[in-house]
Automatic annotation (TrEMBL), chains A, B:
HTH merR-type domain ranges (all copies): 1-70
Region (Disordered), start-end ranges: 93-121
Alphabetized Gene3D superfamilies for the sequence: 1.10.1660.10
The protein's name in its UniProt record: MerR family transcriptional regulator
Upper lineage: Bacteria, Bacillati, Actinomycetota, Actinomycetes, Kitasatosporales
Domain of life, source organism: Bacteria
Length: 225, 225
């Protein structure tokens, strides 16, 4: 197909496609005339993956390049490919920790912080052990869980890893649902794209579904009508 | 207690407490001397709630004021209180929709967009009906789900509301877990604070747990070792 058709099929504008071609993100097409080239389905798929990494997830062009280079190398090893795509995506930290205002800290509070962080890391290790989850060492996601536990405690909420076990069980089922939707054979680019979509794009929707369910169950439990 | 003790207990600095007092976010203490006042447990709790709304969730001071005023009015009606706290919190939209690049759109594609949005809204209505969820009209969370479905389709993924039903079932269980952790009687400020913490602060941790589980199950299914 010509570049105009590639643009139509992928939803990426011609100037942006030309930029990706110059930058090496997208391999060149097969030259057919002085200023023309022929593109194929692989170009469409790769453009969609680039678009989901940059446009949906907000990765930089250079981070996207790294991911794509690694995808090319890992063709055929689905686990490595997924680990790569999942690992390349920094976990969203939408909950900012409470502002720590030096002036308000009692004397000696500064010294207590590393202990809190250490406790939280141990808590996450206990949680993943309880769940039987085997992960890479120090994944960013574990850090997020540790930070949440730390923040909860800083806010005076009595919360430890045991409180998260029922949520971890739901997360375990969600992850199995996610993977059920990946074709376990087939084009690695397509799998990588689908993994990005399912991990990243679904995230706001999953939280939104929880909000809808909270509203419903709150009405059932506490509603007067 | 004096303001210094209030600062220590709440983790909020004295200058910030004075700012909240001037701004009316925090009710004045009981005057004891020319420049001194006595504060109580209600002040500690209210400061913690202010801190979680502003510091954790990133609400503006004026939005926080609105929420607190409403909390004061709704004392005793837990459902209204929670609806308020939950509704006051805009749903995080971490997944940006793919960039729509005018130049790349085929002729007539612009006209198709409203239909896509309408289909997505109908999809969400079908999903909440299937789940038996009763919610307020047009909650922001429903809009997030609709946008996700729309984006999925724009990226060429075959996805409709039925694909989300298993996730909605998990969300339903998560919401019930959340509400189990709210004291169903007691101080409304404390309940409001706990609702904020459980809805907002847990969100990044829930997504992080899913990532950890994804990594584990991906290794089980696709790993070579």
């Amino acid at each position: 197909m010509r570049i105009s058709e590639l643009s139509r099929r992928s939803g990426v504008s011609i100037p942006t496609i030309k930029y990706y071609l110059r930058d090496g993100l997208l391999p060149a097409g097969r030259p057919t005339a002085a200023n023309q080239a022929e593109y194929d389905e692989d170009h469409v798929r790769r453009l969609r993956l680039i678009r989901s990494l940059i446009g949906v997830r907000g990765l930089s062009v250079s981070a996207t390049k790294d991911v794509l280079a690694a995808v090319d190398e890992q063709q055929g090893d689905v686990h490595l490919l997924l680990g790569l795509v999942l690992g390349a995506l920094p976990v969203e930290r939408s909950g900012r920790p409470p502002r720590r205002d030096g002036a308000a800290e009692p004397a000696g509070a500064g010294a207590a912080e590393p202990a809190g962080a250490r406790d939280a890391a141990e808590d996450v290790a206990a949680l993943t052990a309880e769940m039987g989850w085997k992960t890479s060492p120090n994944p960013p996601a574990a850090q997020v869980v540790a930070e949440t536990l730390e923040t909860m405690r800083a806010l005076g909420v009595d919360y430890d890893w045991r409180s998260l076990v029922p949520y971890a069980e739901l997360a375990d089922r969600a992850a199995r649902l996610d993977l059920d939707q990946l074709p376990d054979a087939g084009d690695p680019l397509q799998q990588a794209e689908r993994a990005v979509l399912l991990t990243v794009l679904l995230e706001p929707a999953l939280l939104a579904l929880r909000r809808l369910a909270q509203e419903h169950h709150s009405a059932l439990r506490f509603g007067n009508g």
